[in-house]
Amino acid sequence: ESHCKTCGWRFFSTTSIGPSLVSVATRPKIQIELDLAVTIDRTGSSLRFAAGVRDAFALIVKSTKAKARDVRVFLQSHGDLDEGQDPVLHTDGGTAEQAIADLTKISFEGGGDPDEHHLDAVKTLFNIVPWAADPARARGAIIAFTTADSKPLKSGESTADLGRAIKAKGLLLYIVAEPTPTLHELVCAAEGMMFQITNNPNQAEMQ
After folding, report:
1. Helix, strand or coil for residue 199?
2. Does pLDDT of 23 surpass 60?
3. What is the pTM for the complete model shown?
């Protein structure tokens, strides 16, 4: 475990994705609804983690479904905008089962430079999901599965500005990634959490 020199945020360098990824759904079903928005780097860089991404995603959505009163899943994949790989919304407010099935159809290929447009992918989800207005009734969470670092936002907005906007909206941010300076900055600004991407997500930790 180490700390961000800028904000003191704790980075958990683990070999599995821990229970904090699903902590938003630990209340009884009658207490909460959840909008779960997930973006996945579909470039060739992610191919070596494809099995782990699929397994972790299935565990997360199944666990939240079991614990929340209602779950709407928004599943997006993203690539390198400089290579014409725009974000694609595969599941638009669908069920856990639909999202799991949709993920199996995503191919991990392409991409240009090692860095991809992860920040733009997160911003796209932030903007297109119809987040619930009442935080007492519903919560929202963004999860991003990424590899390599992110290129700057096309809009010119800073990484910290995006993180602060996510926090101001009352959303939870979780990044499952190879740790990078840009993603650290995003997590710090959003007061979110980062986990090491792995091919061996621990099922027991996610229940």
Report:
1. coil
2. no
3. 0.83
